[in-house]
Amino acid sequence: MRRWAIRRRGYIGCSDTARKSARVFLRIATMVALEERDPEMPVWGDRTWFSYRSADEHATHLLPYIKPDKSIQIAKSEAQKQGLTNIEFLQGDATNLTSISTSYPLFDISYSHQVLVHLSNPPSVLAGISALIKPGGIISTRDNHTFFTHPSSPANERDWELYRIWSRKRGAHPDAGFRNHVWMHESGIPWTRIEYGSAAWEAPYVDKKNFAKCHKKSFLPTYGVEPEEGDREWLGELEKFWDEWEKDPGSRFVGVDGWVIGFKE
């Protein structure tokens, strides 16, 4: 699901400010879907449209910061296919960026894609990122806050509610896109130096089969939760719903993200 959303998006919510800035900044650090509590979750770093467009058109040095190792291997392969040589890949922890601060000069811009939604202390992470950015540089993030399925069903709505419940139990923030502008301010950026808004994305019609397949088993396996006996009927209804959704030529799935740009003074 994450890779389809990323490939069709513009520069941090199509902000004119960010688009213009990307043309002059040379050193860009990106974080892609870092997961604090589930290191095996795939991050699809190879599909990050912003990262590769920036490397190809603007940046002299791009530093994606992703994990696990498998994602780095995939990302390197994709970069080679595109003929990009100005990318260096790192594996690491978003909550501890010490290794970057001691090994690299300051960056011009940082872009975090669906990172804060997974982390327990987003303001602290943003403050750590800010320490890596030059004065006058940009700290930016984009995080989901809403999903819409059309048509929907009680089984589908229950699954999304379980996603929100189990995310919060793990210390994550399923509504991060509504709150990331506040976190940016709490990290030390003045309100007068913050821009924010929302941007929508849609699941691709041409690949509805794989999209539906990803959702048929519910979010329970994602969080390592064993279904209880009372869940059997609901899980059957959920699988039936996604089978019908896939076959329905009028069905749609839309996500809405909140984007934020902080300008470091």
Automatic annotation (TrEMBL):
<dbReference type="InterPro" id="IPR029063">
    <property type="entry name" value="SAM-dependent_MTases_sf"/>
</dbReference>
<feature type="domain" description="Methyltransferase">
    <location>
        <begin position="70"/>
        <end position="144"/>
    </location>
</feature>
<dbReference type="Pfam" id="PF13847">
    <property type="entry name" value="Methyltransf_31"/>
</dbReference>
<dbReference type="InterPro" id="IPR025714">
    <property type="entry name" value="Methyltranfer_dom"/>
</dbReference>
<protein>
    <recommendedName>
        <fullName>Methyltransferase domain-containing protein</fullName>
    </recommendedName>
</protein>
